[in-house]
Amino acid sequence: MSNTPEQQEILDLSKQKWLWMSDKNVDLLNVLFDAKAMFVHMGGTWGTEREIKIIKSGFIWYKKAEVYSASVTFFGNTAILLNDIDLVAVVGGNEVVNPFMVTEVYLKFGVNNLLPFSNRNTKIWLSNLTRQNP
Question: Quick one: residue 80, left, alpha or beta (phi over 0 = left, psi -120 to 50 = alpha)?
Answer without folding.
Answer: beta
